[in-house]
Specification:
By secondary structure, the protein is mainly beta. The protein has one domain. The chain is built from one helix and eight strands. Strand 7 and strand 8 form a beta hairpin.
Length: 132
Amino acid sequence: MIRLTLAALLLASPALADEMWDSDMGRIVYEAEEGGAALFSFVNVDGYAATLVIPGLAGNYSNRSVHEAYWIGSGAGMCDAFLAHYTTDPSADWGRALISFDRPEFPTPFTLTLGTCFGPLSYAIRAEVHMQ
């Protein structure tokens, strides 16, 4: 009975790394879930690797919509303060983000709107589902 329950749980949620999208900036990958947040890896518009932290999205595979988030990059950055998520090093390259999924469940494209530091959301990355 325990094996059957475990197998059902494993089949009920997609493997995180199976969720991938393609954008003009490169591949965006659902990498992990930490502390209730989903962590996506991507290349920011400055050309540096970055992590998108989406609080509350962890475990949500079928009811996605518009979610506030933040990103932390590996570039030099221009923010007056350093920011770190416990999975990243402190960085002056960070900002607010908004991820808007087209439909409630994967596979679905999304638009990622980003800002720098606490500034307004000023640029967007369109992500289409990666077809393997």
